[in-house]
Amino acid sequence: MMTQLRAGLVGVGMMGRHHARILRDLEGVDLVAVVDPAGDRHGVAGDCPILPDVDDLIRHGIDLAIVAVPTRYHEDAALKLAAAGVHTMVEKPISHSVEAGVGMAKAFDAAGIVGAVGHIERYNASLQEMRRRIAEGQLGEIFQITTRRQGPFPGRIVDVGVGRDLASHDIDSTSWVAHSPYVSVGARVAYRTGNTHEDMLLITGTLGNGVIVNHVVNWLSPMKERVTIVAGDRGMFVADTLTADLLYYSNGTVPTQWDTVSAFRGVSEGDVIRYAFPKREPLRVELEAFRDAVLGRSTTVVTMAEGVRTLRVVEAALESANSERFVSC
């Protein structure tokens, strides 16, 4: 029988309400209390007490916690939980700055407990299937990864721009899919909605394995789009993480007997395949991975060190936009 872990949830807003829904139904986990000074606006706490702060949650006695509050509050909540010996997953980005994220990662390492970051796109079935097929060599050598993440402005986000909020998804998943870190990025930003933070961001970069990448991110599109495209010498994958669909465009083979052009190594249109595979809710898969990490099992949890690396790339991109030069990561 699985050990029952006592769980606490910090924040029951737009993202926290979904954590609450799954935690209440997650095998081996009992949601025993939630923290939100604004109360249970979405009515998801059930019989759980609504506590005013993290200190009260710690006194309630918990084994693990999910931190789903605005980014500027991550550091304070996480450090208190680490000091109390509570395994914790914070929503992405890990924190408001790399320095704060480094401090959080060190605190959890020193305490010998699990510190994780909620980079949910890693648990999207389309990207997991893509990564598996890339590792098996279906695309051959990878040349380029392109992502598009755009949609309307979310009025609930006021403390960060599209870099930390949206681009962090694609930076993390791109490095994860390619099995390689970023080495440099160049970027441009725009401010169009009257906010103090950037609402449009274009990033070009290079990974350690030589793959070139490009990310289109904005809050100014009436069309919501979440697409990752990976091109290699045998074809191309296109993953839509809104629908969890994965398409494969193979490079066609057109034989030629004309010696003058036979040396040209280009591509042509080949077969197109839409794969069928199980599609589970990414947040549930993510929380299962966190639970398993707490229990000491093999897990795919995103570590705080990985969260820091992703935020470092985001900050390098914003620095590049300000300095108008490429920045090392």
How is the largest sheet built, in terms of strand order?
A: 14-13-12-11-7-10-9-8-15
Structural class: alpha/beta
Question: Major sheet, described briefly?
Answer: 9 strands, mixed
Mean pLDDT: 93
Question: Tell me, what's the shape?
Answer: globular
Report how far apart the termini are: 45 Å
Order of helices and strands: EHEEHEHEHEHEHEEEEEEEHHE
What oligomeric state best describes the polypeptide chains here? single chain
Q: Give the number of helices.
A: 8
Beta-strand portion reads 25-35%
Identify low-pLDDT runs: none
Could you outline the blueprint of secondary structure elements for this entry?
Elements: E1 5-10, H1 16-23, E2 29-35, E3 50-51, H2 54-60, E4 64-67, H3 74-83, E5 87-91, H4 98-111, E6 115-118, H5 125-135, E7 142-150, H6 162-178, E8 182-190, E9 200-207, E10 212-218, E11 225-232, E12 235-240, E13 245-251, E14 269-274, H7 282-294, H8 304-323, E15 327-328
Parallel strand pairs: 1-2, 1-4, 2-3, 4-5, 5-6, 7-10
Antiparallel strand pairs: 7-11, 8-9, 8-15, 9-10, 11-12, 12-13, 13-14
